């Protein structure tokens, strides 16, 4: 399938951006709990939301029909870094603490491009 054919088939994309952050003192279970909260909110129909106290929290956004670009247009080892800097949110996490970011989105395989 040509790239044009694939784009016509796959686009617009559905994209979910999730940012989770804990401090260096946060338990991994607490950060995972945030992810579970985001999942529950998405299942309940929320398209966006956030909850944080400056250095511990989450933000998420679901876009049903994103025109692109795909989060995964670059090489696999660079897509996460590219994505984490390209989606702004309306608040800032404390940059002095260690954060955790997870990004999920449907995509295609290299053979389908």
Structural overview:
There is one protein chain. This protein has 113 residues and is α+β, with helices and mostly antiparallel strands. It has 3 helices and 4 strands. It has helices spanning 3-10, 28-43, 79-86, and strands spanning 13-21, 48-52, 57-66, 100-104. Strand 2 and strand 3 form a beta hairpin. The radius of gyration is 16 Å and the shape is elongated. The model is unreliable at 82-91 (pLDDT under 50).
Q: How confident is the prediction overall: mean pLDDT?
A: 78
Number of strands: 4
Instruction: Please identify the structural class as seen in this structure.
Output: alpha+beta
Q: What string gives the helices and strands in order?
A: HEHEEHE
Descriptive keywords:
single chain, 113 residues, alpha+beta, four-stranded antiparallel sheet, 3 helices, 28% helix
